[in-house]
Design goal:
489 residues; alpha+beta; Gyrase A, domain 2; five-stranded mixed sheet; 41% helix; MSHA biogenesis protein MshI; transmembrane helix
Length: 489
């Protein structure tokens, strides 16, 4: 019971179709491919109200419960329309289609399901319309049989599975004793549909008669008119072949008769699977092969009936889930609390002991008396440490050259003398050596400084500023300032 209630929440849509059902007003045809063999079966019905029982019978008979199905609607179960293409984006067009065709159908936009695709003429859209209530009944019938619906398309679209992608072909088909249907495909895409009335079944019989010959001539004339119309529409890729799939007729003999009367090749439609002896079975097989890639899908995401979440089953399922969660959480917390009870008691005992020790320590601290003499001694020691640290800092920044004097610096400056340089002022303080003087030319100053690398004391000096200019008498002057060490006193 619980599994059945929760199944809508956890069911996931499979991307593989296992079987196909072709629905007609008088029969339901099943085609399934189980990799080992192809299953073809059908159940005759008297009205569409028997669809559910027929579907359940076929699914149960072949043990296909749990499969995802492709549904193919036969003639009379949908409408095919060709409308002008509006200036809308793809998503907007999908939502607007029911309202674009409301004047062409007898039902309101809320009661129909519409899907379509661009025709070979880019200014038009090939639209297919089906009744929403009818679609819902089909979906419920499949779900009642234990299956889900993957896609829902139409017979005239899936027939493209029997055509070639690089050719334009006309398929002449008939279900049972119904009217002849003409469906044209160009480059594997539906382009034209027409129904021919007034042709008896069978079209060819043995022995042949004059009435049969007249009927074939009349059929050939109607086909030629359609071919002429299509040739005008498909100038670059006109119809090059007719495929025949008519129930209760000899398709090979019919193809031979039409070959004599038409100027295009006519062949009987022969599927690869020999069990597909009827047009309905071929349509079901084509729908299974085309699957979710069909250009028409009445059961696509935006066309599917909106799921009603606030239902009695969902509410009961929610309550059951909530009760189970509450029970599980309560059980977990009870188990955890029982496990933690001894640890909690031990922690409380440790806390009591620690509080007692803290109280004792605070009492001892209150009894402690600080000696003023010790405080004065500590203060004196701190001052002494500060004074010594200042002295060490001064010693660290003291120039080593002060210990040996500046005689060596002056001696090496004299040795580095140049006829192009005259020093007027020398300032030495620690590592700082500032020089002022005059030069014959501006280039003489950098050249003179380059000679400092030859002398040990001068090579250790670092300069951060060299200023070369001219005085009032247009004589070249220079100022050389030593690099200052930050933090030096």
């Amino acid at each position: 019971m619980i599994q059945r209630l929760l199944s809508p929440f956890f069911s996931r849509k499979n991307s593989i179709l296992n079987a196909a059902l072709a629905l007609f007003s008088d029969t339901v045809i099943l085609v399934a491919d189980n990799e080992a063999d192809v299953i073809v079966d059908s159940v005759s019905i008297t009205s569409v109200t028997e669809w559910q029982s027929a579907i359940e019978m076929l699914i149960a008979k072949h043990q296909l419960a749990g499969s995802q199905l492709a549904i193919i609607l036969g003639p009379g179960l949908y409408q095919s329309l060709l409308i002008d293409k509006p200036e809308l984006s793809g998503d907007e067009l999908a939502l607007a289609l029911p309202y674009l065709v409301k004047d062409l159908v007898n039902e309101s936009p809320e009661d129909i399901v519409v899907d379509g695709f661009s025709s070979l003429n880019n200014d038009r859209i090939q639209v297919f319309v089906s009744n929403r209530q009818q679609m819902n009944k089909i979906v419920l019938a499949c779900q009642s049989a234990g299956c889900s619906v993957g896609c829902m398309t139409v017979d005239s679209v899936v027939l493209s599975e029997f055509t070639a992608e690089n050719r334009s072909q006309l398929v002449v088909h008939r279900y049972g004793n119904g009217n002849l249907q003409l469906t044209a495909f160009s480059q594997h895409k539906l382009f034209f549909q027409r129904q021919l009335r007034g042709f008896d079944v069978p079209l060819v019989a043995t022995p042949s008669s004059d009435i049969q010959a007249l009927q074939l001539d009349s059929l050939a004339l109607e086909l030629q008119r359609s071919l002429d119309f299509l040739s005008a529409q498909l100038r670059d890729n006109s119809i090059s072949q007719l495929l025949i799939s008519c129930d209760n007729d000899d398709n090979h003999q019919l193809a031979q008769e039409l070959n004599v009367r038409l100027n295009v090749t006519v062949e009987a439609l022969e599927p690869q699977v020999s069990l597909l002896t009827s047009t309905g079975a071929r349509v079901a097989w084509a729908g299974l092969k085309q699957g979710l890639s069909s250009s028409i899908n009445f059961y696509s995401q935006h066309l599917q009936p909106k799921r009603q979440w606030l239902t009695l089953n969902n509410m009961v399922a929610s309550w059951l889930v909530l009760m189970v969660l509450i029970s599980v959480v309560s059980g977990v917390y009870t188990y955890k609390s029982r496990q933690l009870a001894p640890k909690l008691a031990s922690s409380k005992a440790q806390l009591t002991a620690a509080q007692s020790q803290l109280t004792l320590t605070q009492k001892q601290l209150q009894l402690h008396i600080v000696s003023p003499i010790k405080q004065q001694r500590v203060s004196a020691l701190e001052q002494d440490i500060i004074a010594k640290q200042s002295t060490l800092k001064a010693v660290a920044n003291h120039d080593v050259s002060l210990m040996v004097g500046y005689g060596q610096v002056l001696t090496q400056l004299a040795a580095a003398g140049s006829n192009n340089i005259a020093i007027e002022r020398i300032s030495i303080s620690g590592n700082a050596l500032d020089l002022n003087g005059v030069a014959r030319t501006p280039e003489a100053v950098p050249g003179w400084l380059g000679t400092f690398n030859r002398y040990s004391t001068l090579a250790e000096r670092r300069f951060q500023l060299l200023n070369i200019g001219r005085d009032d008498t247009n004589q070249v002057t220079f100022t050389l300032q030593a690099q200052r060490i930050q933090g030096a006193n």
